[in-house]
Amino acid sequence: MRFALSEDQRMLQDSLTKALAEASPLDRVRRFADDPTDKVADVWQTLAEFGLPGLVVPEAYGGLGLSMLEAALASEALGAAVAPVAFLGAVLAPLALMRGGSEAQRAEWLPKLAAGEVQAAIAIAIAEPIAGARDGAGLTAAAGKLTGKALFVPGGMGAGLIVAADATGGLHLVRGDAPGLSRSLMPTIDDTRRLAELTFAETPAEPLTANDGLTTLRDAAWVILAADTLGAAQVMLDKAVAYAKERRQFGRVIGSFQAVKHLCAEMAAELEPARALVWYAAYAFDHAPQEASLMAAHAKAHTSEIGRFIARTSTEVHGGIGITDLLGLHFWFKRIGQNRQLLGGPEKLREIAARVQGLAA
Fold first, then answer.
1. Strand locations in 51-193, DSSP E?
2. 89, 151, 223, 267: least surrounded by Cβ within 10 Å?
3. What is the pLDDT of residues 90-103, one digit of tens each?
4. Spatial distance between the Cα atoms of 69 and 285, rounded to a whole number of angstroms
5. What gap in Å lies between CA 127 and CA 207, rounded to an integer?
6. C-beta of residue 13 within 8 angstroms of C-beta of residue 73
7. Which CATH number fits domain 120-207: 2.80.10.50, 3.10.129.10, 3.40.630.30, 2.40.110.10?
8. 171 phi and psi, to 5 degrees?
9. What CATH code is assigned to 7-115?
10. pTM to 2 decimals?
């Protein structure tokens, strides 16, 4: 049995990392963060040429037909680069269509998604099995139309296709230009990805038929977010170690001080086991479905906690410069913070994990 990535998987992640270094360096991320009208079309085009939007789309529809593990590796690279793109929709929308869409719906949307011609958004945060209604949010479905409000929708501002969950957990496809659909930008701590509030006023919607569709999307989203946090945390650790090797105080590099050594060692010791957990959660999604929900919940809950610890500790190693905009460490710090709360914080996920195991009602 093999417990490591294959050569092709490592090549995929390395190639994407290099593409992001050219297409989305920190200066490009900073320009996006400072300009609410920036749609990063140039970055998306590069990723579309790379094949990222079609990563999990079957080959028959123009995609690469890869697994959740490859999607998690891609998400890890995106988190490391704090790339200003909404990757959740690129993974979850094809999954929703393959598991619950009709052949006509697949034929219409999957080739467009694979080519990057249409970007998708997933509006499931307020569904009861995930976070539950809040602030009057929630969707009701009747006669092929949706009414209500969806919050915290990654990529929702520019999506041409929206997969939305109603209050009962049913999934629906909504076209980006559908009548009755309105969007507004939600202020959040993370400027590298924008969340939208979507309002539906008897908006036409096409239902998807999978009975377990929402659970599938939830588990996949938890894995993708956990991997994104993993990538961001690794960069914060690497930056702390590099800074400790070059910053001098009292005639010595600060990395020679025992206290700083312990901080860096503790970050590394906490992060490395999380990597195996995320990889296995991604593997289980496709190959061990009976474990998928439990492992996805644990992966996101654990990386959320470890990510917060590393974000704080890395900033402490940098000292006062760690909180400056010039250094830019805050982009990774805030990315980790938003991932922690998206689609359920650690406490909520542990509650769900307990229910999955029969340990709670």
1. 120-123, 138-142, 145-154, 161-165, 171-175, 181-186
2. 151
3. 999 999 999 999 99
4. 8
5. 16
6. yes
7. 2.40.110.10
8. -105, 145
9. 1.10.540.10
10. 0.96
